[in-house]
Specification:
alpha/beta, Rossmann fold, 2 domains, seven-stranded parallel sheet, 16 helices, binds adenosine monophosphate
């Protein structure tokens, strides 16, 4: 399938696609949508940035339009992802009023959600814990459920949602269609799909662990004590928005405070912040009020902000696959992006594991470490790391144009 009009989608959906300026289906959409429209269960292996959200939202909207009694449920791991899926659904249903939806996520009070459910909804986007609360209180029933989506299923399991998912299953009718989307397919996803899906068709775009090709990756060798200074240098030399990953909530706060001290416009995202704070952090970063967002892995999962120009791994992720998820925040939908990772001497083994993981998949242009802990090859030619290491010129912020000055103490 090369064009959306090759699909038997209903007219208001084409209008919505036009207004969203989606001209051609992405590869995951081209593969998954026809199968979903046929009513097949699907296991789709696709990371964020591939257009996976529309790949499941389009068939859902089409089904709900064709069958006014039916319902759909999309289960997601995080509140941020739930909010983003809801935005895509709003865009897609712009010309199809009458499909009432509800966003059922934790961290918000139950009462308004219950009131909404009482008025009747057909499209539910939910995180597993809160959905289970509603099902157990009988504020929602899914007798009319026709399509279930498990989005970012691997992350739902990583976050410990397996018990809730197991409890939700008996509330769902057996005859439904189920679409499972996951960036990776470890054994526990296969077990989950065996319970939830019937005779699924598999769809994969690219290699599971291969980052989007347009991402220019590099490393900067530094020390634990030198990271803050390295970070300030990197920020001064880079253009555009920056998403910084730190390992813990406390480190996220500390990095953000440090950058604020240097006059950077920065906001933070982690699980200890209130829902209101998290929403305004994402909104502020999205609309450009903040150039920099510092986040933990879980909080940043699934953030879809098309303009993220740079991802900085202030701390390396512990799991190589998370490296792929992180750098996938940039270079979205075909844009160019840069990812730089800070590697300390203590990180050598971790970086080697990430390099091996990427190397096995033939991932492009990542710096590999040799036994002395130095980048042995493949530093991206035009990357800052390359310039830093091989140009021989010192990178003093004061020698650069437009640098923010450092505080005197
Ligand atoms: P996702 O992988 O669902 O997070 O989508 C990544 C980005 O791709 C989002 O910003 C979407 O708006 C965009 N996108 C999805 N499908 C298309 C399409 N067919 N054409 C252009 N952009 C798209």
């Amino acid at each position: 399938m090369q064009q959306f009009n090759e699909l038997k989608l209903q007219q208001p959906i084409f209008k919505a696609l036009q207004s969203m300026q989606f001209e051609k289906p992405t590869p995951i959409q081209a593969q998954a949508i026809p199968l979903a429209l046929e009513g097949k269960d699907i296991i789709a292996c696709a990371q964020t940035g591939t257009g996976k959200t529309a790949a499941f939202c389009l068939p859902i909207v089409d089904r709900l339009l064709a069958h006014p009694q039916k319902m759909a449920l999309i289960l997601v791991p995080t509140r941020e992802l739930a909010a983003q899926v809801t935005e895509v659904l709003k865009d897609l249903t712009r010309f199809t009023p009458g499909i009432k939806g509800a966003l059922l996520i934790g961290g918000m009070s139950m009462r308004p959600q219950m009131d909404k459910l009482k008025r009747g909804v057909r499209l539910v986007v939910a995180t597993p814990g809160r959905l289970l609360d509603h099902l157990e209180r009988r504020t929602l029933d899914f007798k009319a459920l026709d399509i279930l989506v498990l989005d970012e299923a691997d992350r739902m399991l990583d976050m410990g949602f397996a018990p809730q998912l197991n409890k939700i299953l008996p509330y769902l009718p057996k005859g439904r269609q189920t679409l499972l989307f996951s960036a990776t397919l470890p054994a526990n996803i296969e077990q989950l799909s065996a319970r939830y899906l019937t005779d699924p068709v598999r769809v994969t775009v690219g290699s599971v662990s291969r980052p989007v090709e347009k991402i220019q990756q590099s490393i900067v060798e530094t020390t634990a004590a030198g990271k803050n200074e390295t970070l300030v240098d990197e920020l001064l030399a880079r253009k555009g928005s920056v998403l910084i990953f730190a390992r813990t909530k406390a480190r996220t706060d500390r990095v953000a405070q440090h950058l604020q001290k240097y006059g950077h416009s920065v906001t933070r995202l982690h699980g200890d912040r209130t829902q209101g704070q998290r929403n305004s952090a994402v909104a502020g970063f999205r609309d450009g009020r903040f150039r920099i967002l510092v986040a933990t892995d879980i909080a940043a999962r699934g953030i879809d902000i098309s303009h993220i120009a740079n991802v900085i791994n202030y701390d390396l992720p512990h799991v190589p696959e998370d490296y792929v998820h992180r750098i996938g925040r940039t270079a979205r939908a075909g844009a160019e992006g840069q990812a730089v990772s800070f590697v300390t001497p203590e990180d050598k083994a971790l970086w080697r594991a990430i390099s091996n993981f990427l190397g096995k998949t033939g991932a492009p242009s990542v710096a590999f470490m040799n036994d002395k802990g130095r980048p042995a090859k493949k530093i991206e030619k035009n990357s800052r790391s390359f310039r830093k290491k091989f140009s021989g010129k010192p990178r003093r912020p004061s020698q650069r144009k437009g640098f923010a000055s450092r505080p005197s103490n």
